[in-house]
Amino acid sequence: MGSDDSPKNGTGSTPVPEQTEKAASRAAQVSGHLQTNDKSNTGRRRRKAKEDELPADYSDILGQLQKLRDLAATPDNKKTGYVRQKEAGKLWVRERIQKLLDKGSWREVGSASGKVQWKQVGPVKEEIESFQPTNNLNGFGKLRGRHVVLTADDFSIRAGHADGALFEKTLYMEKLALKYKLPMIKLVDGSSGGGSVTSIKTQGFAYVPPMLAGQETVAQLNAGIPNLGAALGSAIGLGAARLVACHFSCMAADVGSMFNAGPQVVAGATFEEGLSFTELGGPQVHCTNGTIDNLAANEADCFEQIRTVLSYLPNCGTQIPPTITAEDPVDRQSPELRTVVPRKRERMYNPRRIITTVVDQGSFFEIGALWGRTAIVGLARMGGKSVGIISNNCENLAGAIDAAGAQKIMKHLKFCDVFNLPILQFVDVPGYAIGTVAERTATMRWGVELMKAYYTTTVPLFNVIVRKVYGVAGGIMVDCRDPHTRVAWPSG
């Protein structure tokens, strides 16, 4: 038998030509199908979204947020509130922040917060129809390189009342300042989110008023977290309370005022009609009765005073006050001090001259110069280190401590104690003030409160007896520490 070299199928038989053609045809079809699919995959494009569909990348939401931020950061020259703000000679709230903080350091919290009205423009799409930003701005920034928390009122929006504010945001910032031990700066112009009759009318019901952030504020004060405030307009109600609660407060002479209620409410309640903001609670009222610590020439001066005070203070009461490099030699001789105090005891002298000569040159910052004028208090540096200053003022009542003077020294003692500031004290006191005025103003009552402050504070107290130390007042001032640290000048 001859051999057969032709291919065989799986059964060993020779394939039929017709079957071979069918197999080749199927293979060609499969190959073509695969090639077609491959080309289709490489050329595929995402289907364009229809106009009534939301974009997959959330660009609509991001755009809306940015628009809200832009609206909040742009003054509306047509709004009555903004026009009145500028006509009154006041800076807009964002201008204040820009001028106070280090350049580029402002980081706002809740930059898109406020009241938004939305307009439906499709089955699932909305656009911003109107937006009222919050009237209390909050955020972080830096003052001369130091991190701070800042809150600032926008009086141009509902005069700072609650119906234009989101006080939960302000409360949140108060908690952050307490948690992270950051100084709190408060620029007050309005009621700082205080109560509003308009809100109650809109809601249709009244409520028992809460004291929002009261607990957090007191906790900050007791922890020695610096609270520094400025009245840059009319501080009303809650705004006034937030300002006065600060460790240090100042008021702009040209635009500042403060009161529990405005002139119209006062007229209806006490029949004192026609009062202006200045007459009711201007600088000549509150910078001379101790409610506000310092008078400032204008808003810029307020900002500079806040920066200056903070430079003496630590971030909290568990830290040491900051030390700077002293340019004034610690061994500097001051022979002029020998002639400051006159030999004739009935003659007066200028205590501020003694203070400014003894401490580092240019470092004395006086607090409360316009009230409690029988005493002088302030901050200074000795060898670059922060100290508190207390002095009797012989140019007023011969230095006798009256009720206001006692309150002023007491407040400063507590201030220095919570911030760990050692005190340098210049003593020249004939005792407590006497006479009918002294009795009517409860001088001894406040004198005893001063005694409590001297004996309950614990910071170091260095006494310089400049001239005389008489009576209960003298004993309290120089005998409240054991062991004593006191020296006497030849004039003492």
UniProtKB/TrEMBL annotation:
Its EC number is 6.4.1.3. PROSITE patterns: COA_CT_CTER, COA_CT_NTER. Residues 329-492 form the CoA carboxyltransferase C-terminal domain. GO terms for biological process: L-leucine catabolic process. InterPro entries: AccD/PCCB, AcCoA_carboxyl_beta, ClpP/crotonase-like_dom_sf, COA_CT_C, COA_CT_N. Residues 55-325 form the CoA carboxyltransferase N-terminal domain. GO terms for molecular function: propionyl-CoA carboxylase activity. It holds the Pfam family Carboxyl_trans. It catalyses: propanoyl-CoA + hydrogencarbonate + ATP = (S)-methylmalonyl-CoA + ADP + phosphate + H(+); butanoyl-CoA + hydrogencarbonate + ATP = (2S)-ethylmalonyl-CoA + ADP + phosphate + H(+). Residues 8-17 have a biased composition (Polar residues). Pathway: Metabolic intermediate metabolism; propanoyl-CoA degradation; succinyl-CoA from propanoyl-CoA: step 1/3. Residues 1-58 are annotated as: Disordered. The holoenzyme is a dodecamer composed of 6 PCCA/alpha subunits and 6 PCCB/beta subunits. This is Propionyl-CoA carboxylase beta chain, mitochondrial. It comes from Hortaea werneckii.
